[in-house]
Design goal:
binds 2'-deoxyguanosine-5'-triphosphate; 390 residues; Hypothetical protein af1432; mainly alpha
Length: 390
């Protein structure tokens, strides 16, 4: 091991990685986690994120977040916190950029519909699918499937996992990334940080996209104390932002202040938790509760913001209406490929015809999950003659 003085003892040190499933010669100039990050950025699944829904369907507007811009924002927030905590920024970046690779087209609507279609075949879950993408579905290297990422990046990607799935992963890969769910252990600090950065990022950008879309208003946001506090701070510091023509800048400034406050809060609360727990190694952070955390008041405020977004944006009638049509597209695609697997790309068609019903269903789920929104819409039109989404 080659300890790096910029990293704390509790950080994941790349030279002490638990390694890759297929051994490879180390890169001459890059750390193992840099190499993971680079593999993710060059993957096909990563490029597809640009045309995948975060909340608003991809065709609804060019300026809304997509899974790609969301992942970049998570990486940005994660890296800046990681540097302050002296944990590995490259690992945080790799996990952040890969955490949503398994998302279906049409965001939560697509995932829910695919989960229903797969009810008799083990279901569908985007976290498991993200791992499946980096472990199996990417086809880029001569001697292995997937990207052959390090244990630490793969473990960070698998944010949630049921006991049943964890057991299956553990049987296939003893001592692997499923084990911590069976032992009820937290992952590395880098992975813990990505989970929180994900939440901070989407809470902030969904306010921005929600107001941009007109589905929520600045006035409504008065009921969210976290946002309201920084809106008032922005108005007090810059009175000209009260003019109606300046309201977009007011929104940005309030979000900017809110983001900064959350970042500093995580740094302070986590530093205090680390000081109390005093973990002497990367393994010593694997406790039952996360060490990367908000302070209690910030956590409570963040929950209020989340609830507001859920009620007023994610369950808005207009979002629900497109959600219904997006689910129909996914269900119809699944039915069409079940009847005619040869309509899929050859690799998936071949897979579907090579096994029993469960193998066939999984091949169809993999094919659909990999689609971008617009590819799914076009494919649906080709197979059904209907255009449900424009
Ligand atoms: N349209 C819609 N969007 C939702 C819903 N629930 C969450 N979202 C939005 C909020 C965020 O922009 C994003 C977060 O979803 P993710 O799938 O990335 O995170 P989630 O916490 O559901 O899963 P995760 O813990 O990351 O595995 O999706 C929903 O029911 N409908």
């Amino acid at each position: 091991m080659n300890p790096r003085s910029d990293l704390a003892a509790y950080a994941c040190h790349p030279a002490a990685s638990r390694g890759r499933r297929h051994p490879e010669t180390p890169a001459p100039t890059r750390s193992e986690y840099q190499r993971d990050r680079d593999r993710i950025v060059h993957s096909t699944a990563f490029r597809r994120l640009v045309y995948k829904t975060q909340v608003f369907l991809n065709h609804e507007g060019d300026l809304f977040r997509t899974r790609l811009t969301h992942s970049l924002e998570v990486a940005q927030l994660g890296r800046s916190i990681a540097r302050s905590l002296r944990i590995d920024e490259d690992l945080v970046e790799a996990i952040s950029l890969a955490h949503d690779l398994g998302h279906t087209p049409f965001g939560h609507a697509g995932q829910d519909a695919l989960h229903e279609c797969m009810a008799d075949h083990g279901g569908f879950e985007h976290n498991l699918q993200s791992l499946r993408v980096v472990d199996r579905l990417e086809e880029r290297y001569p001697h292995f499937d997937g990207l052959n990422l390090t244990f630490e990046t793969r473990e960070g990607i698998l944010k949630h996992c049921s006991k049943v799935h964890a057991q299956q992963i553990e049987e296939a890969e003893p001592g692997g990334v499923g084990g911590r769910f069976l032992r009820r252990e937290q992952p590395s600090l880098e992975a813990q940080l990505c989970n929180l950065a994900d939440e901070i990022a989407y809470n902030a950008h969904d306010i921005d996209d929600g107001v941009r879309s007109g589905l929520i208003t600045l006035d409504q946001l008065r009921e969210v104390p976290l946002f309201d506090e920084y809106r008032h701070a922005a108005q007090a510091a810059h009175p000209h932002l009260n003019e109606v023509a300046m309201h977009r800048r007011l929104l940005y400034e309030a979000i900017r202040l809110m983001l900064s406050a959350q970042v500093y809060d995580v740094i302070d609360a986590t530093s205090a938790a680390l000081a109390r727990a005093a973990p002497a190694s990367a393994d010593a952070v694997r406790l039952s509760a996360p060490l990367v955390c908000f302070s209690e008041p910030m956590r409570e405020q963040s929950v209020v913001l989340k609830r507001f977004l859920f009620k007023n944006l994610y369950r808005h009638a207009q979002v629900m209406e497109t959600t219904g049509r997006a689910k129909q597209v996914v269900r119809d695609l699944f039915t069409a490929y079940l009847q005619s697997p040869h309509e899929m790309k050859p690799a998936f068609a071949q897979q579907a015809s090579a096994g029993d019903m469960a193998v066939k269903a999984r091949a169809i789920a993999d094919f659909i999950a990999g689609m971008t929104d617009r590819f799914a819409v076009r494919e649906h039109q080709r197979l059904t003659g209907l255009r449900l989404l424009d």
